[in-house]
Each structure stands twice: as structure tokens, then as C-alpha cells.
Fold:
Amino acid sequence: MAFEFLANKLAAARQANQFRQIIPTVGGNQCRLIVGDRALINFSANDYLGLATDPQVIAAANKASAKYGVGSGGSPLVTGHSSLHQDLQTMLCEVTGLESAMLFSSGFAANSGILATMLGKNDLLLQDKLNHASLMEAGINSPATMKRFKHNEMTHLARHLADGKDYQNRLLVSEGVFSMDGDCGDLTSLRQIADKHNAWLMVDDAHGFGVNGQGQGSCAALGVKPDILMATFGKAIGTSGAFVAGSKEVTEYLTNYCRHYIYSTALPISVVAATIKSIELSGEAWRSEKLNERIAYFKQQASKLGLNLMPSNSAIQPLIIGQSDKAIAVSEQLKSAGYWVGAIRPPTVAKGSARLRITLSANHRLTDIDNLLIALARAVEQDGVIT
Ligand SMILES: Cc1ncc(COP(=O)(O)O)c(C=O)c1O
Structure:
């Protein structure tokens, strides 16, 4: 029978408690989510500053849609790149301090495009073991040799670089803030090692841009200049899409050779207008300060309740549960108590490290955090989970 593996693989996913399903929400992605007929407090979104529903951001999107229409109408090299797209690129250069920037329709497309276009078969790609699936997928599909170094372990990375000295070009890739663990990449050491070995450094700052370094991102916060910076607008910026920044040579090369860019419709103008407003707002210090207060409060209260969090100072605060079925059980119990916290399971994370990925927003009330933690401590105890 043709494509028999579909049914077999789906059955295997169900059996291993790894089956995934889409659950529609109603009424927008904000701190209070409506799912079916229930209101749940949302501790799963990446909208760390609450900008996805900010009235000024919404107004910017509406105004641009009314003036220019909804879709961009073409790929960037045809008719899709408007003067607003250009303004956003200029703004991104100012914010990141890098020479040139270009827009992509998603972070997944940007990562796929960069690694497919920048690397050849004589090149070496070295990725942190915990890099996002989009980077891993892109690396597997690229013609280069890909190796993974242990998470943030510079001696392991240096060994790979020494062994790989005969490759023509070497590219190191790390995240600024790791999406499933919430800790930060050691960007300062990565820059030093890259320079020592005549390699390039690429940073995916999907979860740092908009929140770290007063909105300028993880690299700017540390004074590290990456050769290639990729960040998305779908997290703290609260819109959608992504950008790549670096030298003019890098963006000109991608504009000419990156098929993910050339043959894909440019971002909708409403999204571009919203993104410009949102980046402006993310630079207001009080927003990330408010988020940081909530992060500190969450960690302090969790520790009082004996919940063993991972060493993260970001808005991503994972609680390792271990087995997938237990992670699902705790997540379901939280849902019954009125909280939306997703259970992240293999293959997204390593086997045996299924977790609750709790994310915080500047818009959470402190009482939301208190009540979540009480419900969490109760669920963990009832399910016999040792955190
Ligand atoms: C680290 C990282 N890189 C890239 C992406 C992909 O970005 P996008 O959602 O814009 O495709 C994500 C999204 O989850 C991410 O967490």
C-alpha cells in the first residue's frame, strides 16, 4: 500500500505520547486566552512584552492596511518591497549597529536560506547542540559538513575547529537566548574563538531581540558584533517575519543568491508598519524592566515552593518533568486550574527531558504568577514528579 508509513508513524507518535494537535484559540493571543468556552491565563506565548495586542501597534497595522492594502503583492525583487520595508531595514541597521539588513517572511525561511546559500561542500558548520530545529534542519540540508558542539562548551567547539582547519570556510552558529532552555549563548567567547580560528559567527537572536540590550538584542547587550545576525519579529516584537543583518556584502549576496528570499512574497505592509512601531516601543526601557521584574518574582516564588527551575534569567523558564506522559499530565492539570502551559516533548527536546516551557510577559499580573505557581506545585506533587 502506498504511503503506509503515515499511519504507522502517527500510531507510533500516539504510543510515545508525542502526538501533536492544533488547538484553536479565540479572541487573540494575549495574557488571557480563550480556548473553547474557557478563559486560561497564557504562560506559553513568546509575546514577552505584550506588543502583539498593543493599541499603538494595532493602529499602525490598520493605518498601513487602509492606505496600502493587505498583501505586499509580490516578492521583494519584483514589486513587494515598499518604502516602508526600506524604512524598517534602515531602522534595523540603527538598532543593531550593523551595516545592512534585509527582511524574510519567517525565521525558519531566514535560517534555511542563510545556511543553504552561504555554505558549500568544502565548508564546516558548527552548531550548538541546543540550536533551534530550523537551524538543525537547515544544516542537515546544506552541502557543508555539520558538527554539533556541546551546549555552550567552548573547549569542545575549539577542538572541532582545530580538527576542521582544512575546511575552506567555518561558520559557528549559536542562539542568543536558547528557545527551550532560556539560558544565553556565550557570545563573547564565541566571537573570540571565531576570530582566533578565522571563522564566522552567526547568531540567531529570536528570543533576545526586543528584550535584551534595551531591545537591541543579545549581541548589542554584550558588545559582540556577529558576522550574521538573524532575529525574528514573531517573539518579543509581537508581529511576524524576520531579518538578517550583517555587512552590505552579506545582504547583497543573499539578495542575489538566496532562493528563500528571491522567490517568496515580501512581508505584508501592515506587518511591516506594525513591526516598525513595535521595535520603537520595545526600545522603551520600562517595558523590559517590567518583564525583568516578573522574571525575578517568578524565580523567587518558585524557589520558595521548592520548584527546581533551570538556570535561566530570560522570559523562558522551563521546568523539567522528564517523561512525556508526566509532562502532559501536569500541563492538563494546569489547564483544569485555568493556566495554559505547553508540555514540550521529544523530539523538540532530548529524550527524558520533557518539560513545561513557562514563558512570562510584561503584562502578567503578579497574582497570575502566584496562582500559577501554587497550581503548579500542587500538580507536580499529585503526579509524583521530582523537579
Ligand atoms: C531560535 C529560533 N529561531 C528561529 C525560529 C523560527 O522563527 P519563525 O517563527 O519566524 O519562523 C524560532 C521560532 O520558534 C526560534 O525559536
User: Anything to note?
Assistant: The mean pLDDT is 95. Residues 17-46+285-382 form a domain with the Aspartate Aminotransferase, domain 1 fold (CATH 3.90.1150.10). The radius of gyration is 21 Å.
